[in-house]
Amino acid sequence: MLAMRYSVGALLCIVFSVGVAPARAADADAYPNKPIRILVGQSPGGATDIVARALAQKLAESLGQSVVVDNRSGAAGSIAAALVAKSAPDGYTALIAPGSYTMNPSLYRQLPFDPVKDLAPVTLIASAPYILMVHPSLPARTVPELIALAKARPKELVYGSGGVGSSGHLAVELFNTMAGITLTHVPYKGAGPALVDLLGGQLQLIFASVVSGLPHSRNGKLRALAITAAKRLAVAPELPTIAEAALPGYEFSSWFGLLVPAGTPRTVVARLQAETAKAVKLPDLNERLAREGSEAVANAPEQFAAYLKTEMTKWADVVRRSGMQPE
Questions:
Q1: Which of 14, 186, 201, 326 is 20 to 30 Å from the Cα of 305, by its Cα?
Q2: Chain segment 149-176, per-residue pLDDT in tens
Q3: Nearest Cα to 245, choosing from 231, 256, 263, 259?
Q4: Does the CA dihedral 232-233-234-239 come out positive or negative?
Q5: CA distance 193 to 209
Q6: Residue 120 in contact with residue 259, Cβ under 8 Å?
Q7: What CA–CA distance (Å, rounded) separates 6 from 205?
Q8: Tell me: the pLDDT tens digits for 127-156?
Q9: For the chain, how are helix, strand and coil distributed in percent, rounded to 5?
């Protein structure tokens, strides 16, 4: 009798699993049939939020469902990421994360989610490099001259960033490590105030976003030395990359990627990737990204996964070698 109960139980499990699998497949095939929510771990008006809202509008048009952006800022973006990680893996809750997603595991001792296991990569939407800006009073007109000056005056040159662990901070720490120099860091509550102090001469240099820094170099208030990307920018072709100017292999970009809960059906992931790729190729969205110094990518999920792994390894090494203390 006991054996019979086990046999019936096993049979019920088989029947249940057979019944559920087609239902899940049908749900995936019908995707989407209700609104989609995209979480952003940064405040409204920031670069990640701007990209998210521009993409959400295009996805809503192509998918035929409303796509809502939900800002859940705090804990360096981890609050939003944790919420998505714990959501149902059905494609109706997604995350648009910036480059700090791969830096946080090395900077924070405990995250409320596993960035490798709990979220599935969909696509790298776009990447945006920074510009190495210096105050005109600094006697350095090229990257090699800046490095030579920093070596001659160790710890005397001061740079600002949007805070410890921010993209601007880590971009300079990578620069420090590869150049063998030590620049003194002054963290601010945002990149904007740091840029204001650079304009005022309280700082010697900063790594600024293209959209905020380029106008100041064009009007002569600041001097742009190079960009952090792997190749020159179409909006500023006169600027060399740091890699070609002085440090081969140097590359830093602030990027924006789309992720969903782990376990989301592959067909749903593929649909989201395809629609995102189509959206960023539309002239108006593509031109908007280009104006802000961003380059559309929209790669495959496997490529984005490999990129995330490489970035996490790189930043773990930078954090360790720089001596930055995790929060």
A1: 326
A2: 999 999 999 999 887 777 888 899 999 9
A3: 231
A4: negative
A5: 13
A6: yes
A7: 71
A8: 889 999 999 999 999 999 999 999 999 999
A9: 45, 20, 35
